[in-house]
Amino acid sequence: MSRPAASGIGPVATRIYAVASNTFREAVRDKVLYSILFFAAILLLASLGMREVALGDRDKVVRGVGLGGISVIGAIIAVFLGVGLVWKEIERKTIYTLASKPLPRWQILLGKYLGLWITLAVEVAILTGLYTVIIGYQQGMPWAGVYLSMAMLMLELTLVTAFATLFSTFASPTSASAYTLCVYVIGHFADDLYRFGQASDDAGFRALTMGLYRIVPNLGMFNVRTEAVHHVVVPGSEVLWATAYALGYTTVVLGIAMMVFERRDFK
């Protein structure tokens, strides 16, 4: 009796997990990651002193600075680690070894993406824990909305990392970083871009801004930090829509990245 081909879900998941775990270990050993985390820790600790110099509601200022710092640091890690996913393998010549193995390229790319996502999740968890200690020391246990805002941040980083992965498949780290940062910045001002375009009398400009609004991800929908700071409840429907939007958009972007990576010639 012939042996069944090892092409089921189990073997595929095992191979993807192996790539993801290896990517995570490489990211953990990356000195740049520790430098960024160290800077983030300093930023959060510095928020302790902001309570003495802030104007208005000082507690809200401290909470806002802390949550904003975690968001920015998460985006920096997603961009600067994500754009090097493929480039590092090319620089170290290991991509040729991977490409020569009977391992589909889409599994390699998906494994690397998941490894980076796990790295980001660990980073956000660490900074959220530090934030909890700092705010807990100053103001008492943070409100539950804070942790919802961190979950929404992970949805945002899920999508940003997918774009960084896509750009890493065909561009140099410098160019990929610029592309990803553009997506990140425009994505956070997508609603403003739409309103600005609609207020213009130029039909061509309105069409251009509408096109950008429909193509670029609307990252603003994941930002509920203001609600977390002011203890405002976020409707469950908004959370569900943001989750579906992030997962759907990420699937499309990763699908494009896999097609590009599959067609790239490393010889």
Describe the structure.
The chain is mainly α. It has one domain. 80% of the residues lie in helices and 0% in strands. It contains twelve helices and no strands. α1 crosses α6. The N terminus is likely disordered.
Please provide a brief summary of the model:
The protein is mainly alpha-helical. It is built from twelve helices and no strands.
Topology:
Blueprint: H1 9-28, H2 31-53, H3 58-82, H4 85-91, H5 94-100, H6 105-139, H7 144-168, H8 173-188, H9 190-198, H10 203-215, H11 225-229, H12 236-263
Features:
single chain; globular; 267 residues; 12 helices; 80% helix; mainly alpha; disordered N terminus
Q: Beta-strand level of the residues, as a percent range?
A: under 5%
> How far apart are the termini?
39 Å
Shape descriptor reads globular
Oligomer: single chain
Total of helices: 12
Average the pLDDT over all residues and give the rounded result. Answer: 83
Alpha-carbon Rg, integer: 21 Å
Helix content: over 70%
Number of domains: 1
Task: Identify low-pLDDT runs.
Answer: 1-7
Q: Profile the largest sheet.
A: none
* Helix and strand sequence: HHHHHHHHHHHH
